[in-house]
Amino acid sequence: MKRPELRLIRTTAVRLAIKLVLLYGLLVSLVLGALYWISSSHIDEQISHELESELLVLQQMYGASASQQMIDHINQAQLLPEHIYLLLSADGKKLAGNLYDWPEDVEIAFDSKTQGVWVNDEVIPREIHNDDAYWPVVAIKLHDGSRLLLARNVEQAESLLELSEFLIEAMGIAMMFAVLIAVLVGREIVKRMDIISATASDIMAGDLSLRVPVSNKQDEFDTLANRLNAMLDRIQQLIRGIREVTDNVAHDLRSPLTRLRNQMEVTLLEPRSEDEYRQVLQQSVDDIEVLIKTFNALLGIAQAEAGNHRSLWGRVDLHQLALDLMDLYKPLAEDKQQVFEVHNGDAAMIDGSRDLLAQSFGNLLENAIKYTPEGGTILLEIQTTANYVEVSVSDTGPGIPDAEKNHVLEKFVRLESSRHAPGNGLGLSLVQAVASLHKAKLELISTYPGLKISQKFPRQQ
Amino acid sequence: MHILLIEDDVQAATYLIKGLEECGHVTDHAADGDDGLHLALSGHYDVIVVDRMLPRRDGLTIIRMLRADNNATPVLVLSALGEVDDRVTGLHAGGDDYLVKPYAFSELLARLEALTRRQQHSGLEQQLQLADLVIDIHKQCAYRGDKPIRLQPREYRLLEFLMRHADQVVTRTMLLENVWDFHFDPQTNVIDVQISRLRSKIDKGFNPPLLHTVRGAGYKLSETP
Predict the structure, then answer these.
(1) Which end of chain B, N or C, is more open, meaning fewer C-beta atoms within 10 Å of its C-beta?
(2) Complex ipTM value
(3) Dist CA A11 CA A198 (whole Å)
């Protein structure tokens, strides 16, 4: 068993959450980055243009040296919001402006272009900005050696930056929440999976009667649990069937085999006449014949149940098959003074195995003839509707009590009342196996008097 | 008959050969697929009995190679595999008949005789005759002496099959397969009832009786039991 945290991370929910969060983060970063880059470069461009124009105007208006008019102008202009100025004389004395001193990183550009510079907070008055600032700056050296600096305290660009930072923080929090929820969901999944796998382990340990607990949430886990339980029911049913067959084979084949062996052994105990030997051998051959028939019937059922007949699959004309069966069985019924009729409806073609269907219908007809008293009626009927072809065999015999109806479909089952009649109790089992191979619905209906066994074969389009 | 038996189970083969020879048939035995094919290709056999599962070369391959060599000797396939699917594949491979183990010796014998007899009929006869029983294949009707016998279509087919195999034993299974095209084992005596109906039509009031029951094997249409 792996460590629980590890299993949690491996759950689909957590993996999916992590993937989504990462993807979301990547997308947000890309969008924000692009937005920031586009708007800030736009603002930068505008401000640069402003600064450069202003510098040009100043130079043109007041000449290229630090005149008193320029000082007056700066004293006026620095009152405008965000406008930053500094005019220093050639020996470094402040002549005008709202900075305390020349910022360290500002260099004099010969082309008078705007540069982005980090301005140390020591030179910035508190009321303008109380931290280091990244400003667009133009700076030139005038003809008399004095230096002039123009800058903008650009709050807009900074607030955009702040917004981005806020968004990134929010995203971080959202990611944490997403992971948290995923972990919770993942733990629920792990918990419910554990229940299923624990049940599976217990079943593997040998208790096939266990079932996966179903909650009443009706979610996909319940669907899965219901499916698994249905599968387990089917498996249990099959195993019960196999066990039943094994038991019955043991019972139904063991006794005749024992009888056969005893009969031969006793014959060998002392010398006997040729006639006696001959008689015992003939009796043995007859007994073995019965055993082989039972064996073949079991094999046939097993093969039909396993669906091993696909190579024989074809279009079967049930109409014609009914007539062929009537040809074969009618004399048998007439010998018992029974009326045997075939009621054929419209053409009835289905996909299937003629051999298996013939055997199945044959078994039903043999049963009907065997159990219906003299003077009774046996009816083989084919009716076609839009959705199915119904083949039914009805008789006027003693019928089957309702309580026994499911029971008689099992292998080797023979009703108490029919113990005296020949047969191995496998006839209806084959009928059922063939019906289910053909996806037909098998029904035993009491008709008082008598029994109707109906099979509804789905019609293929 | 000259029979070739290709069967790797030596004990089963010994009993079979003993039985076949007691019935007057000369039998050669091959215990594996290679020897079997060799003998089948070289010898002149009336019929070949071949097991499906053989060492060195399986039964169906032997049949295919025989047929590829234009050898039309009838072949009966024996199989322990069972059931109808295998019968179909066996016949597809060029086999003429198919028998599933465990089978009755009488069934095998009857089928072998039917297979060799089939060779002798051209299938183009206008009529078949046994004693004073005549069937007209073209008109699908039958006469005993000069009296017409009224038969249902299926009864006629049953009689025709028996006539084509006159003086041979035919088993109930053979009748069910050839006359009704059913390949299952009825749990009732349905074939016996059919035969007794036919018997009452062709034998009742006539002499000698022609349709005989052969105990433990089946039926035989012949002048002498």
Answers:
(1) C
(2) 0.84
(3) 17
Please report, for residues A186, A204, A235, A431, B196, the alpha-carbon distance to residue A221 in angstroms, rounded to integers and kept in the order given: 13, 21, 21, 37, 66
Chain A residues 272-311 with CB within 8 Å of chain B: 282, 285, 289, 292-293, 296-297, 299-300, 303, 308-309, 311
* Out of A292, A309, A366, closest to residue B187 by CB: A366
Contact A347, A422 (CB under 8 A): no
CA distance B51 to chain A (A): 19
Nearest CA of chain B to the CA of A211: how many Å?
Answer: 38
Determine contact, residues A66/A209, Cβ cutoff 8 Å.
Answer: no
What's the number of CA atoms in the CB half-sphere (13 Å) around residue A230?
6
CB contact under 8 A, B186 and A362: yes
| Partner-chain contact A369 B188, CB within 8 Å | yes
* Host H or E run for residue B28: strand B26-30
Q: What is the pLDDT of residue A207?
A: 82
Closest CA to A36 of A168, A131, A169: A168
- Alpha carbons B191 and B213: distance in angstroms, whole number: 12
Angle formed by the axes of helices A155-204 and A12-62, nearest 10°: 170
The one-letter amino acid at A279: Q
Whether chain A has a CB inside 8 Å of the CB on B180: the answer is: yes
User: How far apart are the C-alpha atoms of B102 and B118, rounded to whole Å?
Assistant: 25
**A 327-356: CB under 8 A from B:** 327-329, 331-332, 335, 353, 355-356
Q: What span, in angstroms and rounded, lies between the C-alpha atoms of A271 and A280?
A: 13
Environment class of residue B110 by beta-carbon count within 10 Å: exposed (0-12), middle (13-18) or buried (19+)?
buried
Residue of B193, B195, B196, B199 to mutate, interface with A, max A Cβ within 10 Å: B193
Are the beta carbons of A140 and A109 closer than 8 angstroms?
Answer: yes
% of chain A exceeding 70 in pLDDT = 88
Confidence of residue A8 (pLDDT cuts 50, 70, 90): low
Cα separation of A68 and A62, whole Å? 9
Structure token digits, residue A416: 């108490």
**Residue bearing the bigger pLDDT, A72 or A411:** A72
Q: Are strands A388-395 and A451-458 parallel, antiparallel or unpaired?
A: antiparallel
Phi/psi at A208 (nearest 5 deg)? Answer: -75, -5
Chain A residue nearest residue B182, CA to CA: A355
Segment among A120-134, A401-415, B97-111 with least mean pLDDT: A401-415
Is residue A242 predicted with pLDDT exceeding 70? yes
C-alpha angle with apex B182: A425 to A372, nearest 5 degrees? 45
Residues B82 and B112: beta-carbon distance below 8 Å = no
